[in-house]
Amino acid sequence: MYLSGNTRWLRCSASVLIVTASAALYRSALGAPGGSAERAKGIIAELEAAPSGRELAAAGVNHARDSLARAQAASVPAHAAILEDTALEWAEVARDLQRASAAEQASDRLEQEASALQAELARLRAAVEQGMARVGQARHDVAELEKGKGADRASPAPATAAPSGAPSPAPAPERQQ
Predict the structure, then answer these.
(1) DSSP class per residue in 119-139
(2) pLDDT for the residue numbered 48
(3) Cα–Cα 20 to 30 A to 46, which of 32, 64, 68, 73?
């Protein structure tokens, strides 16, 4: 049986619409109770309650609300299901943007803390190196002093002896008790 081009197109479009609607309804049935629309509304409520990242998520929230309004106004249930899924996707995108913003802020804070710790570590390393240099210099000085002391002991003339040819000092008077 030969079908005209218009009839074939209508049957093909109807088949595609049925498959799409079935997939949307199947995804809605697999989701949380209440379907995509309820999940989207819940995510929108969470986003509005959170103070941070509200401006960033505003566009996604507005698109989600628009899709929900269009889903309520849709006369074909399959179209409504697709629009509810679209609203859920927009709400999830807005939530992901808000989460990404929060993660980026946390990352910035951690990076600043890491930078401060690196500066502190560099300062402490310099102090340790300076202390080690002082200890090394002190050891060197002690070794020089010990070497000098050893040279003094090895000298033939004691340091308290009078030079030859000079009169010897008078003996100290004895103390009486």
Answers:
(1) HHHHHHHHHHHHHHHHHHHHH
(2) 87
(3) 73
pLDDT-derived band at 109, boundaries 50, 70, 90 = very high
* Eight-class DSSP state of 75: S
Distances (CA, A) of 59 to 30, 33, 54, 103, 150: 27, 26, 9, 19, 87
Q: Tell me the residue type at 57.
A: A
At 52-62, the pLDDT tens digits run 777 888 899 99
What would the pLDDT profile of 62-76 be if each residue is shown by its tens digit? 999 999 999 989 888
Amino acid code (one letter) for 118: Q
Average pLDDT (161-174) is 57
With b for 16 or more beta-carbon neighbours within 10 A and e for fewer, the 43-71 pattern comes to bbeebeeeeebeeebeebbebbbebbebb
